[in-house]
Amino acid sequence: LELAQSLLAGNRRALARGITIAETGGAPAHELLAAIYASTGRAHIIGVTGAPGAGKSTLVNSLALHWRRAGKTIGIIAVDPSSPFSGGAILGDRIRMQPLGGDPGIFIRSMASRGRLGGIARATGDAIALLDAAGFEIVLIETVGAGQSEVEIAAAAQTTLVIEVPGMGDDVQSIKAGILEIADIFVVNKADRDGADGLISQLRAMLRLGGPPPNGWEPPIIPAVAMRDQGTAELASAIERHRTHLHASGQQAARDRERASREFQLIIQEAALERLHARYAGAAWEALVDQIAAREIDPYTAAAQLLEPEVSRK
Amino acid sequence: LELAQSLLAGNRRALARGITIAETGGAPAHELLAAIYASTGRAHIIGVTGAPGAGKSTLVNSLALHWRRAGKTIGIIAVDPSSPFSGGAILGDRIRMQPLGGDPGIFIRSMASRGRLGGIARATGDAIALLDAAGFEIVLIETVGAGQSEVEIAAAAQTTLVIEVPGMGDDVQSIKAGILEIADIFVVNKADRDGADGLISQLRAMLRLGGPPPNGWEPPIIPAVAMRDQGTAELASAIERHRTHLHASGQQAARDRERASREFQLIIQEAALERLHARYAGAAWEALVDQIAAREIDPYTAAAQLLEPEVSRK
After folding, report:
1. Is B299 part of the contact surface with chain A (CB cutoff 8 Å)?
2. A310 to chain B: which residues are within 8 Å by CB?
3. Cα–Cα distance, B34 to B42 (Å, whole number)
4. Measuring CA to CA, which residue among A109, A113, A268 is closest to residue B149?
5. In chain B, whose CA is at the least distance from the CA of A93?
6. B254 touches chain A (CB under 8 A)
7. Which residues of B112-126 are buried (b: 16+ CB within 10 A; e: fewer)?
């Protein structure tokens, strides 16, 4: 593929088009990813998650500038899974990121689901692979915190940053239990605010409650004021330590395999649905949905009818 | 099925076991759902979403008590998509819900994904169907806000409540764009706090910006102080008005069909993966994942290899 060649050569326009193709999905995405996949596996993939208003974009901004000064190249993907409806939810974030525009060592892209089930997770995985293949040394994925998206980010990233801020809602509730398991590094942003020390102690206590970390990595808690670029260097060095730990402990390989397994499953699910859609296009499919809605057939039996001659034929 | 019979007869233990079966998935879930599906379609399904700390549980609690006083039966499902890791993230919520325990007109269940991709959305749809079939007149689904989970809730519910509270983070950011499209009713909870009026005006302005509602329903904004049971009656009556609107406008049927279509797709995706898993169990599957992780093959080509003889055979 010509597009794959330009993308591998570092052509930005090819990369942008490639990500659009990945978002759209289907056969063109499959071909493109197949063509570049062997060139992936070099980037360090960092997930950044936290509640709205936690300062994710500002933090990503200052990290990116820090690494640019050290000569590294950075790809940034902003994921907003809530935008199948709106398509424009992260406009505010992108505007604040403008200072990074025009630098060829940085590539920024907002992604939104095209409304397919699970499509955004698959498309984000593909976009990471494309940035990686295009030679970006660091890939940052920024996502709105809470719920499935955090879990997806943790599954896609090698190092996951969880950003908390003092004074947002009831602390015990806002530090959700699941978060402890996905955070490789905690950032307490807006650490100049009241309650920062309390939040840090609370996080520390929760980590202690969890006992010794099963993988030998104790998540550090980094105070930061991203707006004033405080804590950026400490955070960057914690990320570097985590990366070293992943390699030294063999966890890098384990995480890579998990990511491969997950991406494989996402792709199979989407591909199976696409193939069935293509095969039972139009009237037959819609007639089944009508029957389900009218409760003349249940969706499990309907699914089995579609799948039976195909997937389960022995 | 005996279990289906007891469940349809309103046996609570059968219902509890049924939901566990739905969570686990696989053939037993398929059979159970097939057996009860014709008895669904009577409950009014209400989604409740909002950020951590917005007071969702308290609000659900007071709504449930309000309806109980009117003699209605209520099923409550609390979904926490972030707990595949923890399994226990919503303990705090459940403790606060205790006052409802022991009332046979109320059934409360927390659900967590068992780690399957998309599994929680499918299992939640199944649990709604089970509560509906068991005769609960109102089914409330409570979910942590932000991201994909909100969208999923909106897709599963007939009436979606979005809870906002004054003073949480930057307002413009915390009222995410996608939220406007999924909210049938806004609740401004903790309306006795500073900033409540500002939040209400902001919401009103955002709604006005969106122009006249395409479906003829202008989402009301209900101030509430759920902790002191203020606004509950107004909220309940807004929900009732929305339900009437859905029926009168024909949107109820359209939403039902959308839900059926979505559930069908979720089930197909899960079933296709399960069948392929069962077929290529163990070594062959793992060997493919190893090859993908080693980048000897890309996941798209690997998926096509698995699916080719099955799904796409003409």
Report:
1. yes
2. 310-311, 313
3. 17
4. A113
5. B173
6. no
7. bbeebbbbbbbbbbb
Tell me the per-residue pLDDT of B73-91, one tens digit each, with 9 for 90 and over. Answer: 999 988 764 443 333 333 3
Query: Two tokens at A117?
Result: 């089930």
Distance from CA of B66 to the nearest CA of A (A): 25
Angle between helices B12-24 and B119-133 (to 10 degrees): 160
Q: Answer whether B174's CB lies under 8 Å from A55's CB.
A: no
Asked whether A221 and A197 are in contact (CB, 8 A), the reply is no
Q: Tell the residue number behind the tokens 């020390």, with chain if given.
A: A197
Distances (CA, A) of B106 to A98, B12, B88, B138: 52, 10, 22, 10
Check pLDDT > 60 for residue B118: no
Determine the residue among A268, A279, A292 to mutate to test chain B binding: the one whose Cβ has the most chain B Cβ atoms within 10 Å: A268
Cβ within 8 Å of A, B 185-224? none
Q: Chain A contact for B27, CB < 8 A?
A: no
Contacts of A304 in chain B (CB under 8 A): 30, 271
Q: What angle do CA B288, B27, A296 make, to 5 degrees?
A: 120
CA dist A183 and B99 (Å) reads 34
B247 interfaces chain A, CB cutoff of 8 Å:
no
State how far the Cα of A59 lies from the Cα of A165, in Å rounded to an integer.
Answer: 12
- Is residue A50 within 8 Å of residue A162, measured between CB atoms? yes
* Among the partner residues A40, A89, A265, nearest to B117 by beta-carbon distance: A265
CB-based contact B273 A270, cutoff 8 Å: no
Residues ≥6 apart with Cβ < 8 Å to A5: none
What's the CA dihedral at B56, B62, B63, B65 to 10 degrees? 140
Dump pLDDT digits (tens) for A56-69: 888 998 999 999 99
First to last CA, chain A: 36
Give dist(CA A164, CA A226) in Å, integer: 12
Q: What is the ipTM of this complex?
A: 0.75
Q: Measured between CB atoms, which of B174, B267, B292 is closest to A52?
A: B174
The residue count for chain A: 314
CA–CA dist B188, B167 (Å, integer)? 11
Q: Print the SS3 string covering A112-143.
A: ECCCCCCHHHHHHHHHHHHHHHCCCCEEEEEE
User: B267 by DSSP, 3-state: which?
Assistant: helix
Residue with tokens 């670029």, as numbered in its chain: A229
> What was the pLDDT predicted at A49?
83
Per-residue pLDDT band at B174 (split at 50, 70, 90) = very low
